[in-house]
Amino acid sequence: METRPPNIEGVGHVSLRDLVRNALRMRPDRIIVGEVRGPEAFDMLQAMNSGHDGSMSTVHANSPRDALYRVENMVMMANLNLPLKAIRMHIASAVNLIVHVERMRDGVRRVHSVVEVAGLEGDIITTRELFAFNYQGKRQGGQIEGAFESTRMRPDFTSRAARFGLDKELLDAVGIGGA
């Protein structure tokens, strides 16, 4: 489904919020929103918190932490008068992973980090970096060299992965095997 601007008479507008709500009525297994930019962030979080495992979206931000702040701000754009703690609880329960892609100095986009959203401590959404790009230098042509490496942290969602028979693969990927 795609959004649509209003026609020359000012009618026919289809917003991303409308599309997310209509997608939920279709009872999908997954919901993927190409980019969240405004109040539709609330509807996307609602979808993620209503049993649609595997749903995902993109948001532009400078870091994984900034992505969380941006989502908070976009939910506030929906004018729902929710307290900030409620918004953060909603985000923490809906989002499992943040994959941060960065355009580096050589102009190449690379996955810079993979961060797990670990939950809420007080009023703060806690995160844990699982993978990070480690800069190792530049080649003669200016291309950045580096390696994408595990931080060897055990993800909190390992038990969820086990329900799908993927816990061994997850632990192997983070470099801690069956530990």
**Low-pLDDT regions:** none
Shape label: globular
Helix/strand class: alpha+beta
The H-and-E topology, N to C, reads as: HEHEHHEEEEHH
The count of DSSP E runs of length 2 or more, i.e. the number of strands, is: 6
Overall pLDDT metric: 90
Helix content: 25-40%
Main beta-sheet annotation: 4 strands, antiparallel
Radius of gyration: 19 Å
Strand order of the largest sheet: 3-4-5-6
Number of helical elements: 6
Taking the alpha carbons of the first and last residues, their distance comes to 43 Å
Beta-strand content estimate: 25-35%
Entry keywords:
179 residues; alpha+beta; four-stranded antiparallel β-sheet; 6 helices; 6 strands; 26% strand; globular
Give the topology, please.
Blueprint: H1 16-25, E1 32-33, H2 40-48, E2 56-57, H3 64-76, H4 84-94, E3 97-103, E4 109-121, E5 124-138, E6 144-150, H5 158-163, H6 167-173
Give a short synopsis of this structure.
With 179 residues, the protein is of the alpha+beta class. It has helices at 16-25, 40-48, 64-76, 84-94, 158-163, 167-173, and strands at 32-33, 56-57, 97-103, 109-121, 124-138, 144-150.
Overview of the molecule:
There is one protein chain. The protein has 179 residues and is α+β, with helices and mostly antiparallel strands. It contains six helices and six strands; from the N terminus they run H-E-H-E-H-H-E-E-E-E-H-H. The protein has a four-stranded antiparallel sheet. Strand 5 and strand 6 form a beta hairpin. Helix 1 packs parallel to helix 2 and helix 3 packs across helix 4. The longest helix is centred in the middle third of the chain and has 13 residues. The mean pLDDT is 90.
